[in-house]
Design brief:
about 40% strand, about 130 residues, Immunoglobulin-like, binds copper (II) ion, single chain
């Protein structure tokens, strides 16, 4: 009897482990291209569905640097682990001509701000919105 109980404990621990209980189908992520240029995001309004994985393909078509700064969105979204190092301080930085992919699962529904933090870029119109519904 005691032996049977001791076997049940590790099984319960395994089932409650997030890595096992919530497998992510990162390969099924929907592709979404976002272009950064001087001084705009295209598209500037992004609509995502809550709980759906997306592969954000960020392209900086300008010769100078820009960034995808969306602190609240990136903090709330579930980021594919290998893409997490691309995010620093709520931003994904892209040097001129650079592109990168970040795969994530859209967070809680709401409207999240997007902007470029380079000096004066948001004042010149480099802002956007991410709407999760
Ligand atoms: Cu910019």
């Amino acid at each position: 009897m005691l032996h049977g109980r001791s076997l049940a404990v590790p099984a319960a621990l395994i089932l409650s482990s997030p890595a096992v209980a919530q497998p992510e189908n990162w390969n099924d992520a929907r592709p979404l291209t976002l272009t950064l240029s001087s001084f705009r995001f295209e598209p500037a309004d992004i609509v995502l569905e809550h709980g759906v994985p997306y592969r954000l393909h960020l392209v900086n078509s300008a010769s100078g640097g820009h960034d995808f700064a969306a602190r609240e969105f990136l903090a709330a979204a579930r980021i594919r682990p290998q893409d997490a190092p691309k995010i620093r301080d709520g931003r994904i930085a892209l040097s001129g001509g650079e592109s990168t992919d970040v795969t994530l699962i859209a967070p809680t529904p709401g409207t999240y701000r997007l902007r470029c933090t380079h000096f004066m870029h948001s004042a010149f119109g480099m802002t956007g919105r991410i709407v999760v519904r």
